[in-house]
Sequence to fold (200 residues):
Amino acid sequence: MFVEILFYAFAAVLLVSGLTVITSRNPVYSALSLVLCFVTSAALWLLIEAEFLAIVLVLVYVGAVMVLFLFVVMMLNVNVERVRSGFTRHVWLGVLVTLLVIGEIVGVVVARQLGVDPTRGGVPLAPGYSNTTELGVALFTRFAYPIELAAMLLLVAIVAAIALTMRKRRGLRVQDISAQVAVRASERIRIVKMDAERPQ
Fold:
């Protein structure tokens, strides 16, 4: 009973934070709301005893991906009004996806009411079972190459984000290395001779 209460509480927070992501006018607030979505999703993972996935969700998405999102949002100077001007053109797609998700949720609820239990027939896990060990064995044996490919894609994304933030802007002061190296000490330093004064 207590687990169900926690599930509905976390689900409510997840829905509210998800709506805040798409309705907030400030992109930074949207990114912070997405952080709350990830943390709440990690709590839901913990409820089904998937501790490793919950930790990875917090460390990877909240600790790395969302920091990258915030850097991109704050450094690109995105014109929010211009982006939102074409929002109404894609409303039909959002409505379609929303209806599909609602249909899936209603289908699961109706199936449960009819007596269809998707968890029935599951093999109980041993007391010493570790999903972290099973995931590690799977990732580093059968899925080693896809993991390496995903790492390369993330590296390309980071390089692309840095390249986007380093574009030229008006009034932006940049460092001229050649001018700094070519400077002479006589142009920068002036020696002033003063008579020594006795302290009062």
